[in-house]
Amino acid sequence: MLRIVAALAVVGLMAAGPAMAQTKAKAANSSRMAAYKAPRGPDGRHPDLNGVWQVMNTANWDIEPHAARAALQLRPGPFVPVPAKAVVALGAVGAVPAGLGIVEGGEIPYKPEAKAQRDQNRANYLSLETGDPEVRCYLPGVPRANYMHLPFQIFQSEKSMIIAYEYAGAVRNVLFTDPGPAPVDSWMGQSVAKWDGDTLVVTVTGLNGRAWLDRAGNHNSDQMQVVERWTPAGPGVLRYEATITDPNTYTRPWKMSFNLYKHVGEDARLNQFKCVEFVEELMYGDLRKEPLK
User: Fold this and answer.
1) Tell me: the pLDDT tens digits for 227-250?
2) The pLDDT of residue 105 is above 50
3) 3-class secondary structure for 218-280?
4) Alpha carbon of 267 to those of 182, 232, 271, 275: distances in Å?
5) What pLDDT, in 10s, does the model give residues 157-191?
6) CA pair distance 136, 86, nearest whole angstrom
7) Which residues, in sequence order, are CB contacts of 10 under 8 Å at separation 6+?
């Protein structure tokens, strides 16, 4: 009897393990952030966020937890799905690496019709009309710009802040005086910031709803609002959290979180990846007087 009870206890601990580990990790992370006192920035009062930052995750492929798979766009095969014709020649280069995800709770709370749209997006990933805007080098939007595979740089002065992204030369002007509603919706939206202790809180509105959240087809509408929290968590570590609200797409607000890491040494700089010219053949090649075969 005692052996049965012990075995049941072990099974229970194994089942609860991932959730318990995640809870403990969050508690430990919060404790470290509360104890850490970051160097002061140019104004002498708030943390210094200057520098080149980058993620070490696979969220740009899929922000939800996911296993590795053969390609971003698949087609039915004789036994299991296989890569779509347009990407099959890429082999392992076109595959999707596994990831733990950055969505707290694991799953985005989609409305049924919005989840169906996500699935359709995924099935048509390479479509020039309705596929991933990243394929066509459109601006990545917020929050996606912060967890793409390329770094970005924060420029912080006494009174102003700019975030420059290597991907497509995207830029965000972070305003500390609220100018009111954005005059027009845009890919990167309007960012209005304030300080909450050592945390920079940025509210992003005025998004046009055309950017995807990742390469897996996760999406939003032009009613999305993003509230970001940027908190120094340790030397060279910045904790990023974003609460997403979009009543057109989700049943409730939800949250993502991950760490950003600061570049040091000779690679603490942005290179250029202005990819518009790289997709000219893809988007306009068929308009040549004599299209290439």
Assistant:
1) 999 999 999 999 999 999 999 999
2) yes
3) CCCCCCCEEEEEEEEEECCEEEEEEEEECCCCECCCEEEEEEEEECCHHHCCCCCECHHHHHH
4) 35, 21, 9, 21
5) 998 999 999 999 999 999 999 999 999 999 999 99
6) 15
7) none
pLDDT at site 141: 98
**Secondary structure percentages of the chain, helix, strand, coil, to 5:** 25, 25, 45
Ranges of H-type helices in 79-149? 112-123
Beta-carbon neighbour count of residue 147 at 10 Å?
23
- When pLDDT is averaged across residues 269-273 and rounded to a whole number, the result is 95
Domain boundaries, the chain: 1-35, 39-65+100-287, 67-99
CATH 3.90.550.10 fits 39-65+100-287, yes or no: no
Query: For the chain, how long is the longest CA-to-CA vector?
Result: 83
Confidence tier at 20 by pLDDT (50, 70, 90): low
- 179: cis peptide before it, omega within 30°? no
Q: What is the DSSP letter of 30?
A: H
pLDDT of residue 31: 60
Residue whose structure tokens are 């974003």? 242
DSSP-derived letter for residue 171 is: E
End-to-end CA distance of the chain: 74
- Between CA 286 and CA 293 the distance in angstroms is 10
